[in-house]
Design goal:
It is built from 11 helices and 21 strands. By secondary structure, it is of the alpha+beta class. It has 2 domains: 175 residues, no CATH class; 236 residues, Anthranilate synthase (4-Layer Sandwich). It has a 21-stranded mixed beta sheet that branches. Strand 18 and strand 19 form a beta hairpin. It is globular, with a radius of gyration of 23 Å.
């Protein structure tokens, strides 16, 4: 049950808005009910760049979540736990849904939050695996209400601050914190001279988690036995570095190079920071509609328009690529139907052209979706056949057996959802995990009948090279 105040919250806020009477009334109510609640304040501000803000204020081991898609003119970043929960096991998304509903029901809102991503917003990161929590690895699912978030959307810019209201709260302290946080972020002075160049960090030779071509051959043997129709095998290349790599300059290069992708950063205490640019959207929700997509098949870019078109036509016309894409679409439709979404409309397949690769992409949209929570859809979709395989119950144990190391955030889920049910979740791929003196790069490829071990390794090389070029300036992988 949400905290009710006799004083209405201001519908529009800026840094000069007097919140003292409203906060005093909330504290009084909290004392009378002996409950804790949350206040979320949204203020519109002048131009801001969420990634630049992260670059200026981020400190090691401070949790963050950042997503940006330049072609959509959208960028969001959040940091610091105000309230956090972690879940493991096959019901992790359902348990996160219960927690999320409770947190949002206990939150009151001040300021204009009509634009998606303003107002109280929860940020989620889930690993590929749902296994019980290992203290040395990221939790299978973490969801948090941040202390602050920043948003840029089509010319609008917002700051959002969240604070806990308890019977022991002090109005003056809360107002001071609000003003301090606002001044801290609004008053940032960006200095490009202090930005680090990742190419100045020496990156050693890679160590790989297993022999990829042998792993592909083993998986194809299982496909020929008709035990599964598709499996996705990934690679992990780990490099030593002579200094910590700067994640935000890497993210900046990625967003400039891959503007049709979601650039992202994920960080949790003692778990390093994942940075990448993913072409894969798992779920977009407007509150009454769900959108997802089938993304499968890869081809290089051509040096000429004709060669580019040849590779694009191959993606949409070659038997192996058609089969891989069809399997992904069919699996997504089955999984959505399993939670009651039968009205999913399939868009036309098209080629998604990125700076270094082309993919076959088919959008899928369901409307209306009343009574179905977005986390139900996440649970049904994750991991998609584009990340794990099909059937899921056969593919995933084989992935674990062959790959030997947990993927953790790679091919998991990250994203956000606000208190009006609007949100977006992506699959972290084409990425690298940064630790103080270590870098791990990830890439994978989908295998179906007709796949070739050498060609699949070449496809993962293309994907790995995109990250490595941004980090080192090299276009080829070093010898291991």
């Amino acid at each position: 049950m949400s905290l009710k105040s006799q004083i209405l919250p201001p519908s529009i806020c800026d840094e000069n808005t007097d919140l003292s009477q409203y906060v005093n009334d909330l504290i009084t109510r909290s004392r009378s009910e002996q409950n804790s609640h949350f206040l979320s304040v949204t203020i519109e501000t002048d131009y801001s760049d969420p990634l630049a803000i992260l670059e200026s204020i981020h400190q090691r081991n401070i949790p963050i979540c950042y997503l940006e898609k330049p072609t959509n003119e959208f960028s969001i970043a959040a940091g610091e736990y105000l309230s956090v929960a972690r879940f493991a096991g096959p019901q992790r998304f359902q348990e996160a849904q219960i927690w999320a509903d409770q947190i949002l029901s206990q939150t009151v809102v001040a300021g204009d939050h009509k634009i998606a991503g303003t107002g109280p917003t929860l940020f989620l990161s889930a690993t590929f695996e749902n296994a019980p929590e290992n203290p040395n690895l990221p939790p299978p699912l973490e969801i948090f209400l941040p202390r602050w978030q920043v948003l840029r959307k089509e010319g609008y810019n917002f700051l959002v601050f969240n604070v806990e209201i308890t019977p022991e709260s002090s109005s003056s302290n809360i107002i001071r914190e609000f003003k301090d946080q606002t001044a801290k972020i609004k008053g940032l002075r960006f200095n490009s001279l202090t930005a680090s160049d990742p190419r100045k960090v020496k990156v050693g030779s890679p160590e790989e988690n297993y022999d990829y071509e042998n792993g592909v051959a083993e998986a194809l043997l299982e496909i020929r036995k008709k035990k599964l129709s598709k499996i996705v095998l990934s690679r992990q290349l780990t490099f030593s570095t002579d200094a910590p790599l700067p994640p935000f300059p890497i993210a900046h290069c990625l967003r400039e190079k891959f503007s049709d992708c979601h650039t992202f950063c994920i960080s949790q205490p003692d778990q390093g920071l994942m940075v990448g640019a993913t072409p894969e959207t798992l779920l977009r929700t407007t509150g009454n509609s769900f959108e997802t997509e089938a993304l499968a098949g890869s081809a290089p870019r051509g040096l000429s328009a004709g060669k580019d078109a040849h590779w694009g036509k191959t993606l949409l016309g070659r038997e192996k690529e058609i089969l891989e894409h069809k399997l992904v679409i069919q699996s997504i439709l089955r999984r959505l139907a399993s939670i009651g979404i039968e009205n999913c409309k399939e868009g036309r397949s098209r080629v998604l052209r990125l700076a270094n690769l082309q993919h076959a992409k088919t959008p899928l949209k369901a409307k209306p979706v009343h009574g179905i929570h977005p986390f139900e859809a996440l649970s049904a979709l994750h991991p998609t056949p584009a990340m794990g395989g099909s059937p899921r119950e056969v593919a995933l144990p084989l992935v674990e057996k062959i790959e030997q190391k947990p993927r953790t955030w790679y091919s998991g889920v990250t994203g956000w959802i606000d208190n009006r049910g609007r949100g977006e979740f992506v699959v972290p791929i084409r990425c690298g995990k940064i630790l103080p003196n270590k870098l791990t790069l990830y890439a994978g490829a989908g295998l179906v009948e007709g796949s070739n071990p050498q060609q699949e390794k070449k496809e993962t090389d293309w994907k790995l090279q995109a990250m490595l070029e941004v980090i080192t300036g090299r276009t080829t992988l070093p010898e291991s």
